[in-house]
Each structure stands twice: as structure tokens, then as C-alpha cells.
Amino acid sequence: MTQDEAKRLVAKRAVEFVEDGMAVGLGTGSTSRMFIEELGAKVKASGIKIRCVASSDASKALGESLGLEVVSLAELPELDVYIDGADEVARDADGSLALIKGGGGALLREKIVASSAKKFIVVVDSSKVVAKLGKFPLPIEVIKMALPLVEGKLTELGLNPKQRKAKDGSVYLTDENNYILDCSVGVIENPEETAAEVRGIVGVVEHGLFLGMAAMALVAGDDGVTEMQG
Ligand code: 5RP
Q1: Are residues 215 and 118 in the same domain?
Q2: Could you tell me if 122 and 183 lie in one domain?
């Protein structure tokens, strides 16, 4: 099975968790894109009524193009379910799910939407499941003015920050108009400790460690979709 086939498979499974009347959070990235497509198809075919909040401008535009009602979090502050991808999924020492997110640059809004949902379901292909987080660079969203300060502090912590560039070589900006520093951290032995260190730096808006937030991960591989409970 190719990675794209696995993403499609898990996206199809994830729509089974959406029922009539629900408030649904839409994630960001290629797996979420497939989920939004499948959700749009389900709503069209079944006529169920749902309302959505998106974690990025791109997901909002996609959802609306497929006929989904996408409103602001202010209009719909409590979500029944949030479905989103991840860059890495591991089990934390206490058995909960620990994620790195933000490869698509939407970590701040993603964490806000995830925090507003009763249930956060992660959708990944099996290549994303790791024993320990850290091979994927940890994204950190930074206020523009604070960039040199934050870069220096992260370097002191040995986290090897590198400013993200867009595909055309320009400086990458998030939907909230902030910068991203991608940190080549190496194996993260204690994600809570790393999260606290990063959070303590003035000018950091958010980091891509999502610890104990996901209720479940749906993981697609050659054997189909398996569930990792959080
Ligand atoms: C975006 C994210 C994505 O969920 C993450 O990067 C996974 O993306 P993909 O489904 O394309 O592999 O966190 O900020």
C-alpha cells in the first residue's frame, strides 16, 4: 500500500466518527485534506447536518468548496470531535499519546481547535508511529519581533532551530502571521520537559508537541486501520 493509499484509507475510516448534528474540527495537511474530501462526500450523500471549524485557512477553503458549513471558533466554541493528522505519534511514559504536529505550519490553530474538542482523533499512516518522538523536526511558532531572542535560547538548549522557508524560498509565515523555527532536536527522551523548556521562552507562541491531547490514533497500514487508544 502506498502512503497516499494509507492516508485515504484512514480518512475514510475517520468519517465514520462523524454523526448528524455534530460540531467537527477540521485538521490541516494531506491526510486531513483527504478526510475533508471524504467528509464532504458523506454530507452530500447522506444529507446529515454538521458544522465545522477549520484549523487553517486552506482547510476552511477546501471545506467550503465541498459544501461544508465552516464557521469560526467564536460561533462554535465546543466541538464534538477534531480529526487531524500528525508528523509523529508515540506513546508517552504514562501511556498517553504524544504527537509532533506542525509540519504544515498550522500547529497554533491546530492546538486551539484540538483544545476545544471533546475528542481529538489522530489520523496517520503507519510510517508516522515511532517509539520516541524527535526524528521529525519540532516546529515552534514565534512572534516575529522575538525571532533572534528565541533562536538564541533554543540554540542554548541544544534544540538546533532553523527558520522555515516557503517553497519559493521566501520566509514562511503562518496563518497568524508568525515565523516557524524547525528544531532538529534528536530523540526527545522527556517530551513534557522539552515542552516546558520551550514554553518558558518569551516570544514562543506555541510548539508542536501535543501531549496527552489525543483520545485515539487511527493508524493505516497493510493490515488495514488499527486503533491506538490514548
Ligand atoms: C499540519 C500538521 C499535519 O497534520 C501534519 O504535518 C501531517 O501532515 P500530513 O497529513 O500531510 O502528513 O500538523 O500543521
Answers
A1: yes
A2: no
Q: How many residues does the chain have?
A: 230
Task: Print the domain residue range for 95.
Answer: 3-127+211-220
3 CB-contact burial (10 Å; exposed 0-12 / middle 13-18 / buried 19+): middle
What residues form the annotated binding site? Answer: 28-31, 84-87, 101-104, 128
- Give the residue numbers marked as catalytic: 110
DSSP secondary structure letter of residue 187: -
Answering whether pTM is above 0.90, one says yes
Please report the sign of the dihedral spanned by the C-alpha atoms of residue 102, residue 108, residue 205, residue 126: negative
Does ligand 1 come within 6 angstroms of the Cβ of 31? yes
Q: Are residues 64 and 170 in the same domain?
A: no
Q: Model ipTM? A: 0.99
How far is it, in rounded angstroms, from Cα 198 to Cα 188?
13
Which numbered atom of ligand 1 lies nearest the CA of 124? Answer: 10
